[in-house]
Write a structure and sequence with these properties.
3 domains; six-stranded mixed beta sheet; alpha/beta; five-stranded mixed beta sheet; about 25% strand; homodimer; Molybdenum Cofactor Biosythetic Enzyme, Chain A; Maf protein
């Protein structure tokens, strides 16, 4: 650590770009940077987005600097007249903009690589506040500025995610590590089949505790708990988290399906791979959502045989062998049809397991007897074939919510069955 | 407009949730709200995110209120102890928190619908700052608060996107319309099959103009142009937009597929419905994404017969009748297989058209001859069966981008064929 440089304990992220304020673009950079800073033990206390406006950028930079040790900006480093980040940084830190020969050479070099000629505009990207240290950008023309002023370290990064990420990893990450004490550790535990408040009641003592902190978050039929602590070393932080995690799992184990980045589909994928089992799907109201979520994961061809989106009764009959009489008697959204769909998918494909969903996702198509939100999930393997009934009528006005929750419920049913098979 | 209520011209969005500061969640609510506010003519000048911390929430609310006519918050309305939004709003506006009988009844009603019992915790969601108007939430237990104080209108919305969106559309949107002067009108024109810079070249004169403004935005194989103007009346605004729209369509008509909320799948759905035609899908690398996107739309059972996610060679053979020798000779990612898949899906289902996708979405599975990003899209109807080759190797590092672009390309190919049939 250099003399006079203080530890970096807190950071704020300032996103610059009118396109973000207009809602044209979802800002994914800030979440990425925040996750990285969290694992480096840097507390992020605020995100701010402002447009391409000199005063508003300067205000945001000043305010952030008054609160945080590190201010990272993304965006506004391009060659056009509305790219103002570095100019505003110069204004806020009372410095002149000067041309950096190294940055000018970098612009030339990048254009040479693309086989094009830079215009006068492009050399705007060689201007930085005096006293700046440059942040190399191997992927694009926009280098970043690193500037310490009045107790705050400013870092300007471009808005292009791949460039921003590379620059953070290669320059900022080692610098922050070098200037931080202690380690922060977070562990996320995922649960399904239990509501947020029922879950919260079972672990209220942990939710009230201050170290480690435990925070719940719920959505679409899943709930997660995040356990966080900070300590001098990573080992010490992990030692503090372990007993909390253990006790939470002792109380909530039956609902637990994985840690951190685990999803219901990745939990299912893990179990299928471990058991060398294959899966076939028969989807009606989810219309391919289960198949899509399974194949979002690379390598899914190992355990996913085929998916049948049998949207019409005809295709339920012809493809899956659901008897015409059964459809006529019970209707497509019924327990026997869900069972038959799961079994049909399994037999047709030769997979070890079949999973089916049939329901009324709405907004239309509901009746008094079978309202929007009525869903059946079916499962079939060599030993059992069964179906469960779901009442999602509370979400009757959101087709998306019904489809997502149906998919989550189906994957969770499959997960339970796979764990049962594991234990038998 | 009520007496004493001022026009809403500017807004800020405050996102509340430690999970966002930790980078656990990408905040998509803010972009959605911003886009809606933009079309309502409300300028959004700042987005702020703070964690579940009393002081930081209060600071963010005060600062936002000092700058904007409308402050919308998302998040922090849950039943747990770290859900603090309404409490902080009460503190900032110097009001007491009081229980609203209507909100208490709503909690009871939602729990009754879920078939569960509320716990003491849950009634926290019935407490609001005194003088609040409640924002109904038909999808969840968390109602929102609407509170005017010192010249700023505060609206608190939950973080769950479907609930937040519904509440904005049903309560806030009409209220904002009612309290704005003049009309801002935006029309979005959507194009596919042309790159952003090629498109920009053809309409550069409009992009340079100041009224109406025309702004391009590109992503995942689609480009859109947004035409915007503001006038005293809606009629006047529309009169200014019409000739610009007409001229742009005269130059770019062949790439144009729809306006505003149109997507490639909704354009396809419209054409299928108009022609009383039905569709079947055979998907390999997109793994159900096309089916999922088609069935995201209510009413898709009218034209969508069935979808086959034939992830394995075996299911391409058995289900779709792709000859074993063809797979052996050309490989699953090839033009003849794409053709055969489209034809197989059409014939198996009895649909009028079959659409197929086969490709290498990566990150693994590429070879020198067939790199990641090589995709074939096939189409078959009673008259023609053909396939097109796509080179998406530039996106070889993003499985998602390859899948999304393949789906867009496939829908665009189908759209062109349907328009051809329309004209013949």
């Amino acid at each position: 650590m250099h003399d006079g440089q203080k530890n970096i304990k807190s950071a704020e992220i300032v996103t610059i770009g009118t396109e973000i304020l207009l809602g044209d673009l979802v800002d994914t950079n800030t979440a990425w940077l925040s996750a990285r800073l969290a694992t480096l033990g840097v507390g992020v206390y605020r995100h701010t987005t402002v447009g391409d406006n000199r005063h508003r950028i300067a205000d945001a930079l000043k305010e952030a600097a008054s609160r945080a040790d590190l201010v990272i900006t993304t965006g506004g480093l391009g060659p056009t007249s509305d790219d103002l980040t570095n100019e505003c940084l110069a204004a806020v830190t009372s410095r002149e903009m000067v041309e950096y020969a190294e940055a000018r050479a970098h612009v030339d070099e990048m254009f040479r690589r693309f086989g094009r000629e830079p215009t006068a505009n492009n050399y705007k990207q060689a201007l930085f506040p005096e006293g700046t240290e440059l942040i190399p950008n191997p992927l694009g023309t926009a280098m970043g500025a690193l500037l310490e002023a009045e107790g705050t370290l400013f870092a300007t990064l471009p808005g292009v995610p791949s460039e921003m990420r590379g620059m953070f990893e290669e320059t900022l990450q080692p610098l922050i590590r070098n200037r931080s004490d202690g380690s922060i550790i977070s562990r996320t535990l995922w649960f399904a089949g239990i509501g947020e408040s029922a879950l919260a009641e079972k672990v209220q003592d942990f939710l009230d505790a201050t170290d480690p902190t435990v925070a719940p978050l719920a959505g679409q039929g899943k709930v997660r708990l995040r356990i966080t602590t900070r300590a001098a070393t990573q080992e010490e932080a992990e030692e503090r988290i372990a007993p909390v995690e253990e006790e939470i799992l002792a109380r909530l184990g039956e609902y637990y399906f994985g840690d951190d980045d685990e999803t219901l589909e990745s939990a299912v994928a893990r179990l299928l791979q471990a058991q060398h089992s294959t899966l076939a799907l028969a989807e009606s109201c989810t219309g391919g959502l289960l198949a899509k979520r399974l194949t979002d994961m690379p390598g899914s061809s190992e355990y996913f045989k085929e998916g049948l989106v049998t949207y019409s009764n005809e295709s339920k009959e012809c493809l899956l062998g659901v008897p015409h009489e059964m459809l006529a008697e019970h209707g497509a959204v019924s327990e026997p049809v869900a069972r038959k769909m799961a079994e049909g998918a399994r037999k047709l494909s030769g997979a070890d397991l079949g999973l089916s969903v049939t329901g009324i996702a709405g907004p239309d198509g509901g009746t008094e007897e079978k309202p929007v939100g009525l869903v059946f999930v079916g499962l079939s393997d060599a030993e059992v074939t069964f179906a469960e009934r779901l009442d999602l009528s509370a979400w009757a006005r959101s087709r998306d919510a019904i489809r997502e929750r149906s998919a989550n419920w189906a994957f969770d049913l499959l997960r339970h069955r796979l764990e049962e098979r594991n234990n038998s």
